[in-house]
Each structure stands twice: as structure tokens, then as C-alpha cells.
Amino acid sequence: MASPATDIIIVAGSGRSGTTWLGNVIAGDDRRIIFEPFECRRVTEFAELGMRPYFPATEPQPQWHPKVEALFSGRIGNDWTDQDRKRLAPERDTGGVVIKEIRANGMLAWLSNNFPCRIVYLVRHPYAVIASRVKQQWDSHLEAYLSQPRMVQDFLEPYLPVIESAQGSVQRHAVMWCLENLVPLGQMPSYPWLFCRYEDLAVHPEAEARRLLGLLGLEFTESRRQALAELSRTCSLRPTDRSTEMLTDPRGALPDEERREVARIIDAFGIHLYQEQM
């Protein structure tokens, strides 16, 4: 079991953005991986957390603090959270933990303020994320954000007209990409989080992996090199989806009209990370 002093690294980002891949690279075979522990439908201890929880950065959250502490100290786990644990070589277990999570973007500042964790935030081009989610028939879960009054008050109020006017799965997933990234991108300047774009990892995998691992104080071991070469088990197996062009410039992922709709929504939220590829 991990101890309360365990070195915790959180790899966060949107679903379908490469968090499993990057989490495996950072974990290698010497750090335990905890897979999406804040999935309220899969982890009993967080069943009442909700699908996309938002915690104001400076509020104590006494209901959740002891549960997160239990998670970080290795006292919460099940088949869902431990599904990637087979990568760990027991004889090389450093006691360190990598938490791969796509549903806690609204909690990251609170986690940073309350626990000695390090955060790596990964973002991927919205066209690629949206196309993958539509293909996978994911629900956009916009109501998970809109049903939180404090989230609306702190971040979403200026964007309610564009959120409420979204029609169809592509527009709704475009809004969801914005909602997922709006909070952490806005908070990032105040925290020592590491930032990574999926496209940089795909185009210059070894250089980008070495940069991140160096900043985390980790060696670029053979197991990490192998994980970097694998992509991840959650990535599409279709060769066209794994092509360098598709991974790094996904403008072919959506038809022209849908790209225009997505670009309009992204622009309305003022997120300009991929302005040159919209």
C-alpha cells in the first residue's frame, strides 16, 4: 500500500485527448497507475461527487478531503481504478502514483491547494476530440456543469447564451471541450502545473517526453520508451486514425460545416490554443 507521503502525479485533460497514453509514459513500470478514480459511476466512495465536479480553489470541502486523502494514500481502489496496474513491476515499485483522470478538471486547483500532488495538464485539438467522441457516441454531459450554481457563477455565466444555443452532438461536444478546459486553463498561471499539447507529444515524442519527465524528476527508462511507442489501449486501432497527419493536424476529422460550427464556439469562449488550425 502507498503511504500518505506517496509522490502523487495527476495527469489530467479531456477524454479522448491522450491522458491514458501520457499516464502510461510517466508511470513506466515503477509507479502505480490509478485509472479515473473520480468516476462517480465506478468508484463507490465518490458516487455522490457528480460527473464533472467543480471545487472552488480555496474552499475546504470537508466532505471530500478525507476521501481524497484515502485515495492518495492507497486506501481506495477497485477493478476499475487498478485496470492498468499490470504495468507495474513489483520489484521496481517506488511507491509513487500516477493518477489518470478526465473528470476532475474543475478540482485541480483545490487538489493543488490541499495535497502535495503534481499536475500535468494535457490538451488536444478540439476537432480530434469531438470527432472521436461523436464516433464513440459519448454523451456530452453539459448538464453536469450547468447544474452546479457555483460553477455557473464563477466561470460560465458569460457563456450561457452559446452553451444553451448548442444544437446537435458536434456543437454540444464543442461546448463540452470548452467547459472542460476553461477552468484549468484559466487557473494554470497561478499554479506550477506542467502543460502539454497532444500534438507536440505526437510529432516530437521523445523530446516532449524527456522534457516532461525531466521536469518531474523521472528517468526516461526503457519501460517509458516502450509506453511512448505504444500510444494507448484506448486509442483507435484504425491506421488512418493513427497516421501522423491525423494525430497532429485533425482538420480532416470533421466536415467543413462542422469545423466552422466548432470554430465559432471555441472563439466565443476565447480559447485560442489552436487558432492557427481552426
UniProtKB/TrEMBL annotation:
It comes from the Bacteria. Residues 117-233 form the Sulfotransferase domain. Pfam families: Sulfotransfer_1. This is Sulfotransferase domain-containing protein. The lineage of its organism: Bacteria, Pseudomonadati, Thermodesulfobacteriota, Desulfuromonadia, Geobacterales.
